[in-house]
Each structure stands twice: as C-alpha cells, then as structure tokens.
Amino acid sequence: MSMDAAPEPSAAETAQPREDLLSALEVIEGQPLEERAQGYAALHDELARRLQSGPADASA
After folding, report:
1. Secondary structure element (H or E) that encloses residue 59, with its range
2. What is the DSSP letter of 57?
3. For a FRET experiment, which of 10, 29, 40, 57 has its CA 20 to 30 Å from that of 20?
4. Tens digits of per-residue pLDDT, 2-52?
5. Is the pTM for the entire model greater than 0.70?
6. In sequence order, what are the residues at sequence separation of 6 or more whose Cβ sits closer than 8 angstroms to the Cβ of residue 27?
C-alpha cells in the first residue's frame, strides 16, 4: 500500500450514503408523476456536485 493511498471507507461510512440515496429515491417515487422529473433532476444535480467535489483519482 502506498503512503498516499486513501484509506478504504468502513462499512458504516459507505452504508449511510447508500441509505440516503435509497431514501431520496423512495421520496421521489412517492410523488405524483408530474413532480418526479423535477425530483430526479434535483437528485442528479446533487450527485453530480458530490462527484465533482470529491477527490480526484490520479490513477484513472
């Protein structure tokens, strides 16, 4: 393992974002059809922001 490698997230750290995503999807799916597109667009924007603000993978 190299010294600059990021530590692997624990199961608890990876479970919370997944649960948050599932909860958000459940809320969106519970909305009337007309409102779902806006919900999915907002979720997409939030996930894109998180992805862009995360650490860059130099090995990619």
Report:
1. none
2. -
3. 57
4. 455 555 555 555 567 788 999 999 999 999 998 999 999 999 999 999 899
5. no
6. 39
Measure the CA–CA gap between 46 and 54, rounded to whole angstroms: 12
From CA 36, how far away is CA 16, in angstroms rounded? 23
Residue type, 30: G
Please give the biggest Cα pair distance in the chain: 50
* Cα–Cα distance, 31 to 17 (Å, whole number): 22
**The tokens of 29 are what?**
């799916």
